[in-house]
Design brief:
There is one protein chain. The protein has 353 residues and is of the alpha/beta class. It has one domain: Metal-dependent hydrolases (TIM Barrel, Alpha-Beta Barrel), CATH 3.20.20.140. It is 35% helix and 19% strand. The strands form 3 sheets. The chain has an 8-stranded parallel β-sheet. The chain has a 4-stranded antiparallel β-sheet with strand order 1-2-11-14. It has a two-stranded antiparallel sheet with strand order 12-13. Helix 1 crosses helix 2 and helix 3 runs parallel beside helix 5. The longest helix is centred in the N-terminal third of the chain and has 17 residues.
Amino acid sequence: MSTTTDTLTIIRPDDWHLHLRDGAVLDSVVADTARQFARAIIMPNLQPPVTTVALAIAYRDRIYAALKLAGMGEGSFEPLMTLYLTDNTSAADILAAKQSGAVHGVKLYPAGATTNSAAGVTDLLGRCSLALEAMQSAGLPLLVHGEVTDPAIDLFDREAVFIDRVMIPLRRAFPELKVVFEHLTTREGVNYVREAEGPVAATITAHHLLYNRNALFQGGIRPHWYCLPVLKREQHRLALLDAATSGTGRFFLGTDSAPHSKGLKENACGCAGCYTALHAMELYATAFDSVGHLDRLEAFASLNGPAFYGLPVNQGKLVLQRGSYQIPAELPMADSTVVPLAAGESLAWKVVA
């Protein structure tokens, strides 16, 4: 990494948590990620979900076709595929995933936790123990959406309760299972990941580093800041920022960029998800700069993730330059538009190469 007052050059980063959707939406958004990131872990919550190796490879082929359609050169971006864990995922499914070379993780969605999660797991240790044992043996990471869906639990407490009800028993039963606690949002989550024994890591989004839950309500309800897990109190944002910029190898970049059309967000029952793929590295640079730790952005964005997943570090470079960058009001997407996070606002960094 090299840095001056106005320029930051880092190893080309990866996005370890990304939603690309499918069809015309995929065609519209994939280039935004590929312009910045060399690789990305692709979420499997399509309709129907990606539950087998064959479905994962077919989805990967559609992503490559979308890249070609967008004019991105061959080898410019590598999608790292995942399977959607269900109550019926077998040990054979896990072995096939590992042997494929295309699948790099298995995603746990507690049933009903977020967008397209209806097919998710209802009882992790009760229904998925054979699959988890196979994952532990194969070294295939479990990627968890870390929230309980118990309606009796307050929305803002669901991550902390997930640690007690799911993570601690899971780690006790499968101590060598590689687990990524995705889109971490709370101080309790940070403390758990820092102190947990065994191979545990976490991704952190740019929006959880930059905004607290007040952003949802400034001047009225602002649906484009609504995501799941939802933004939390300022004390949690500060804990996340401290973790991301600490230099600790257990935390790395995962945007959780999630495209929804403007109409589906600005709706009586608006969809959860923030679109950040367009300006992800500008957002992360802004967050790290806010606490004077631009020197630690490269490890978080480009080194920690490959180390955890057992993949080589990228060879290319990404260059950011200090200067005013105004986020577009909206972008074309399929037959509609998508509103990027913080649309119309300005950031102090811009990706230039």
